[in-house]
């Protein structure tokens, strides 16, 4: 294989599922549209053909019941992967998720396990609007017994998904729709069997700690490059697993820089950012040089019209602006109005490849 | 006569267990919400007569009868009510979360209707893995008002899964009568048939009727004909949750209560056995034997150790 061959986030998700289905003959995969011609944005294409329609199947429009059926099959000895094209529809399944999947191993005193993974895709832009664009990662992370993984980079996503599927605890796996076309070289792909890092350090730096997850990791890395041009050496970390006990590298980074900005890909209040800042404050209070900051989505639902969403999602420029202002440094003219969109493409698509509708 | 005697023994055992719990509940040592099965024993016993230990059962909040009829450990049940280490979940779940995997009783859960999909999922596993066993899900008529029931029945019918739905219709959801919950013309059996379950209804207080109907349905399920439902019309004697009679509250018509109490499943079967020639002494001896087993279970539960709270963080995640 040539080192300059490239692969996408969606292809990597697809490959992880193929490998898991092959490695565990008792694995089932189902979800609305999983075996339709579009194959969940290409992430499930070929699965049913390879492993048969008994193990890989499209399902009735019954999110709660089918989640319970997945849990029941998992308890009986199957390994189960469910996929939802939008997280918002999965809200119908909160009873099964919270009262059964999350509690089962605990409330039956360790006698049974729930090897269940649920892929949830977050929409953004092109008018996804109030009920097709919610990242409720902090809800899931709040429930004891659930693991929450929020991948952001193509090199690690296959290993992250494979590890989630093979985990004997229920795992919520949250994919941002705008990540699916992200490319990287195949030579950079992490081996599937490698245990994924809960926190990934994407760039080291001495002056400022920027923590992000999901799509905001990409914006943070662009911001870090701009900050470097402005003489600020930022460290960029990703909390890929939403579990405070695993966030040691974050605490170490803050101990070094004394400054923290958390970029959240969900609403700002009661968010993962809030938890990260709490955890950091409890553990590193003496090392903080200034109050930690957060930057997330505003606390109102995402409107639909393109005219209303221009300022809804923080960008690399808004991250840069937030850091510069907290350091009381002068802003270059190019980002003084960070909320303005400077790209030539419309602000509501991730790239030229995206032509809607979802 | 022999199978009737066996049914009687199983029903009387459940009755006496529940009465013993009720008698001691006020001592305040069983500190968890407890839903007694008194009056509804025939459904559990009649259904279990067609099941093997390999078949897997799920139930709801009112699960003691289903658990015991499937072969669940009596000692582990009573210890669980006392919150002891020797309880079937070591004090984690209480009366509403019972399990005995060695008996094929997978679990009962507390949220109305939410164990129905689990049993259907169990049946999916059994079908895909080609296992020679079936699944059973017990629930009340209130659960047929939940979406989870429709969603589960639909998928079971779609995939022809090996699962028996057992609906115990005791006419009340806590204090709410059927009349405020389902249209008067509603037939749960007609509804289930329309979804694609092979459904029939029986007098749930007549264990012979339940057993005969279940045997027929289970035969079809094992034969690969797809899922079935049996609706057992029955009545609970005591309050929804707790040890007491509560008809002083007046939520059930007096003549209705009198009608059903006169048709108590245990008394009906006892009379039938006597009519068939069983001796009163024989039945009393049975009662005596059950009494000692129950006394022993309570004694064991009371002297058992409490679980250690130092272990409270164990089993949040699979190890």
TrEMBL record, chain A:
Domain of life: Bacteria
Cofactor(s) demanded: thiamine diphosphate
Molecular function GO labels: oxidoreductase activity
Alphabetically ordered keywords of this record: Oxidoreductase, Thiamine pyrophosphate
Keyword DNA-binding applies: no
Transketolase-like pyrimidine-binding domain: residues covered: 7-181
PANTHER family (UniProt xref): PYRUVATE DEHYDROGENASE E1 COMPONENT BETA SUBUNIT, PYRUVATE DEHYDROGENASE E1 COMPONENT SUBUNIT BETA
Protein name: Acetoin dehydrogenase
Species of provenance: Alteromonas lipolytica
TrEMBL record, chain B:
Record-given protein name: Acetoin dehydrogenase
Coiled-coil ranges per UniProt: none
One GO molecular-function entry: pyruvate dehydrogenase (acetyl-transferring) activity
Domain Dehydrogenase E1 component: from-to ranges: 10-309
Pfam families attached to this UniProt entry: E1_dh
Sorted UniProt keywords: Oxidoreductase, Thiamine pyrophosphate
Residues that span the membrane, as ranges: none
